[in-house]
Amino acid sequence: MTAVTFRYEAMLMRFDLAVEAGESLAIIGPSGAGKSTLLNLVAGFETPLAGSIKLAGLDMAGLPPAERPVTMVFQEHNLFAHLPLFDNVALGIDPGLRLKPGDSARVEAALAEVGLTGLGHRKPEQVSGGERQRAALARALVRNRPLLLLDEPFAALGPKLRREMLDLVNALRRGRGLTVLFVSHQPEDARHGADRVAFVQDGQIRRIAATADFFAEPRLPEIAAYLGEAEG
Ligand SMILES: Nc1ncnc2c1ncn2[C@@H]1O[C@H](COP(=O)(O)OP(=O)(O)OP(=O)(O)O)[C@@H](O)[C@H]1O
C-alpha cells in the first residue's frame, strides 16, 4: 500500500507498506495507534481518503471486502452461538449455507487442519476459547484467500496457547503459501511468530524490520519504551 491516508476525526493516518507473498508480518504498537485500521483498510472495511492498495498486483480501489483476495479473523464475535462449528466454518464458503457437493468435505478438511476433527457438531459454547478461535481460523481457510489478516484473535488466550496458535498459523501459512498480517498487543507474539515486525504509532508505521533486528535494536526511544512496558 502506498501513501494510504485515512482520518478518524482528529486522527490522520498515513500508511506505506510492502509485504512479500508468503511473509508473516506482525503489527504491534500502543492502543489506539491505528493497527486495526491498517488491517481494515487492506480488507476493505474502511476506504482510504487517498493512496493506493495493491494486493497480488491488483488495485483494490472500489472493491468490496468479499471480492478482495483477503480473509480476516477478529478478536471476538467470530462465531454464531446458535450454529455448530461445522456450520460456522461453512459460512465461509456460503453465507447462506447453501452447500454444493464437495463443500462438506472442504469444511471437514479445514476443521482437521486446525485440529478440530470430530468437533464440528458442537456449538461454540461447548468448546474452549482456543477451539473457538481455531474454528474461526478454519472458516477463514475455507475461503481460500491468499492473504490472511488476524486482528488479535488470540489475545484472550494464555501465553502457551497463543504460541500454539501462532505455530498453527505458521504451519498453515507454509502449507498453503499464505501471506499473514497479524496485529498483536504482545511483542512476544511477534518475536515468536513473525518474519518481520511493523511498529505503528500515531497512525503511521514508525519502523519495520526483520524480527531479530527489531528486537535486538529497537532504535526509536518510543519503541524501547513500548517494549519495556509491554514486556514488563
Ligand atoms: N469508528 C471509529 N470512529 C472514530 N474513531 C475511531 C473509530 N475506530 C477507531 N477510531 C480511532 O482511530 C484510532 C485508531 O484506532 P485503531 O482501532 O486502528 O487502533 P489500534 O492500534 O488497533 O488500537 P487497539 O490496540 O486498542 O485495538 C484510535 O484513536 C481510535 O480511537
From TrEMBL:
ABC transporter domain residues: 1-227
Keyword Cell inner membrane: yes
Molecular functions per Gene Ontology: ATP binding; ATP hydrolysis activity; ATPase-coupled transmembrane transporter activity
A biological process from GO: thiamine transmembrane transport
NCBIfam families referenced in this protein's UniProt entry, alphabetically: thiQ
Keyword Translocase: yes
Pfam families in the cross-refs: ABC_tran
One cellular component (GO) term of this entry: membrane
Keyword line: ATP-binding, Cell inner membrane, Cell membrane, Membrane, Nucleotide-binding, Translocase, Transport
UniProt cross-references to SUPFAM superfamilies, sorted A to Z: P-loop containing nucleoside triphosphate hydrolases (SSF52540)
InterPro entries: AAA+_ATPase, ABC_SmlMolc_Importer, ABC_transporter-like_ATP-bd, ABC_transporter-like_CS, P-loop_NTPase, Thiamine_ABC_ThiQ
Parts forming coiled coils: none
Stated name of the protein: Thiamine import ATP-binding protein ThiQ
